[in-house]
């Protein structure tokens, strides 16, 4: 069976816990996690042209990753801050953006990726602060993921859900299994499992966790989470 590592990371626009914007630290953390596919949240600046929080040249020079080309905004890396990174050698067969119902602008991303001999469909998301809108957004993602459910599928991102198993977590749990990665927020003292990785039955979870390096505790207010899956 072949294995693949995925990760999810809210990079807070590359602003660290010291309130300094240092995208180099984010790249250091991504290189430490060493995932094949990464879902980023808050990957773009909030105002102006919403340029990428990690300059493209810096990512190219200091990491083995490239963003999935969403072709939405010229200077942005993502869609409403959601971006998908893949290894440079990976092949992206298809990609899309999802328009989610919202109180404040939200979206999700999708890509079909082939890397290390494994083909995986990945959804990345950052859901609303409001529980009502989170559930509506979760329903939209679940509906989109149902189209093409024959593919091995992973959904991940910052769900903003503080409850242990209610709200949107219960909605997702009817269709997908959760990787028990652990607490990822706040980076200095993790108390909540806001970031989640979910998977379909075609994948076997081998290992998962929260990446708690010294660099990760400084680079963002969230810690990255990761999961290893066996396919086939």
Automatic annotation (TrEMBL):
One of its GO terms (molecular function) is endonuclease activity. The keyword Transcription regulation does not apply. Residues 7-222 form the Endonuclease/exonuclease/phosphatase domain. Keywords: Endonuclease, Hydrolase, Nuclease. Gene3D superfamilies: Endonuclease/exonuclease/phosphatase. This is Endonuclease/exonuclease/phosphatase family protein.
């Amino acid at each position: 069976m072949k294995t693949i590592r995925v990760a999810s990371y809210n990079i807070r626009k590359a602003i660290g816990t010291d309130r300094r914007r240092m995208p180099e630290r984010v790249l250091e953390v991504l290189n430490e996690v060493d995932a094949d596919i990464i879902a980023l949240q808050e990957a773009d600046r909030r105002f102006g042209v919403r340029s990428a929080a990690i300059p493209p040249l810096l990512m190219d020079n200091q990491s083995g990753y490239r963003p999935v080309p969403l072709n939405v905004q010229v200077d942005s890396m993502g869609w409403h801050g959601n971006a998908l990174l893949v290894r440079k050698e990976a092949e992206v067969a298809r990609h899309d953006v999802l328009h989610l119902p919202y109180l404040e602008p939200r979206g999700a991303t999708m890509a079909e990726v082939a890397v290390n001999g494994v083909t995986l469909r990945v959804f990345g998301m950052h859901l609303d602060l409001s529980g009502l809108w989170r559930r509506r957004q979760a329903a939209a993602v679940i509906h989109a993921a149902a189209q093409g459910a024959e593919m091995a599928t992973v959904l991940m991102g910052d769900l903003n859900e503080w409850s242990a198993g209610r709200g949107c977590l219960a909605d997702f749990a009817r269709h997908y299994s959760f990787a028990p990665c652990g607490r990822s927020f706040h980076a200095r003292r993790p108390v909540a499992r806001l970031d989640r990785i979910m998977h379909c039955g075609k994948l076997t979870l081998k290992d998962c966790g929260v990446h708690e390096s010294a660099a990760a505790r400084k680079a963002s207010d969230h810690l990255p989470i990761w999961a290893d899956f066996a396919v086939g």
